[in-house]
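Sample intake sheet
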Amino acid sequence: MYSKILMPTDGSELANASVQAGIDFAKQLNAKVVALFVASSYQYPIYIDIIPPNTPTEEEYQSAMRTLAESYLQPARDAAKQAGVEFESVIQFNDSPAKEIVHTAQQYGCDLIFIGSHGRSGVGQLLLGSTTTKVLSLCNIPVLVHRNKAH
């Protein structure tokens, strides 16, 4: 059915629960997993006249974000290892997580995106925005939305 599943995470408790469910799902299908963390792009401080000396360079920012991303991807890596699921992790920089999720799924040849959702609807979804909803509207491959009842 599905052979390569993309699982985006932001390191939150909800995302970790969804990734765990996704890895269990991947194990049942004997599918590979690509876990993705999308970090915001570096923003050069153009709104001030003098750049403070403690402002990180783009390289310093990206290095710090990669370290943070690795810590967020570690639970997925551990769960995949324990389940015996083939695993790959990816860190991307983009100010539009939904676009990057769809792009990475295409780039890595994934045939399913398994993504968590807070389950908000109506005004709550409109006010807060929803990466999951944006992925659904942008994507041309199947998207499985995992809703964790505990959250």
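Comment: Strands lie at 4-8, 32-39, 87-93, 112-117, 143-147. The first helix runs from residue 13 to 29.
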